[in-house]
Design goal:
The structure is a single chain. The protein has two domains: about 1-115 and about 250-265, Diaminopimelate Epimerase, Chain A, domain 1, CATH 3.10.310; about 125-245, Diaminopimelate Epimerase, Chain A, domain 1 (Roll), CATH 3.10.310.10. Helices cover about 20% and strands about 40% of the residues. The chain contains six helices and 18 strands. The protein starts with a strand and ends with a strand.
């Protein structure tokens, strides 16, 4: 069974966020998929199964420890792999049936891939007890929001986001899939920066998180006065995500590079 590893949200190998992609010839047991994801030891491993009647693919995402309901970078990697490995024609739309509903991907003429995802706007909440200490902050953040997955923490500057050194043990007890730290960008060409911490689901820091931008797009659009923005996720690997708010949907744009092909035996 073939498996590929794709670096997503980057134009260069060994940057962005790596995901493993496995196109299944038949349905697989959940325990086996979880074991493969643990073996790959990437933030997500994606499993695809072609649906009867040609209506796209079923898509599931696993971290090394758990299945997740929405993942952007592994969806981008899956679309890239389907086109590059010949499972879909180069000009065909990729359609994915997931726990978060129907998602789709298309390839633009410039080689970028656009994903159609649900918007996940955060609503303001009181900061959970211990959140500031877990993030290594000396004072309570100015804004904390929550959507159905994550907490969004807005900081005063890009420098503050980059300087975060979380205590992942403390952060793992915060009741959320992950914590998104964000601020306005200071670098030319970008509108906002972010980082994503998810020790509760087995990923201390995710290199580039597409699903986090489903929250960041509706968060930043009214604050910046625009619906189309460019975000930079300031992890050690780094990655670039285009976002466009379209009502209750977010269009995520990114590039991808295959770095490894292999077989599960």
């Amino acid at each position: 069974m073939r498996i590929v590893q794709v670096d997503a949200f980057t134009a260069h190998a060994f940057a962005g966020n790596p995901a493993a992609v496995c196109v299944l010839p038949e349905p697989a047991a959940e325990a086996w998929m979880q074991a493969v994801a643990r073996e790959m030891n990437l933030s997500e491993t994606a499993f695809l199964l072609r649906r009867a009647g040609g209506d796209g693919f079923g898509l599931r995402w696993f971290t090394p420890t758990t299945e997740v309901e929405l993942c952007g970078h592994a969806t981008l990697a899956s679309a890239h792999a389907l086109w590059e490995e010949g499972h879909l024609a180069a000009d065909a739309e990729a359609r994915f049936h997931t726990r978060s509903g129907l998602l789709s991907a298309r390839r633009r003429a410039d080689g970028w891939i656009e994903l159609d995802f649900p918007a996940e706007p955060p609503r303001p909440v009181d900061a959970p007890a211990g959140l500031a200490e877990a993030l290594g902050l000396h004072a309570a953040p100015g804004y904390v929001g929550r959507n159905r997955f994550d907490l969004v923490v807005a900081l005063e500057s890009e420098r503050a986001v980059r300087a975060l050194r979380p205590d992942f043990g403390r952060l793992a007890v915060v009741e959320a899939r992950g914590v998104i730290a964000t601020a306005r960008a200071q670098a030319d060409g970008f509108d906002f920066v972010s980082r994503f911490f998810g020790p509760r689901v087995g990923v201390d820091e995710d290199p580039v998180t597409g699903s986090a931008h489903c929250a960041l797009a509706p968060f930043w659009a009214p604050r910046l006065g625009r619906e189309r923005m460019l975000g930079y996720q300031a992890s050690a690997r780094g990655g670039v995500v285009e976002v466009r708010l379209a009502g209750e949907r977010v269009v995520l744009g990114g590039q991808a590079v295959t770095v490894l092909r292999g077989e599960l035996v």
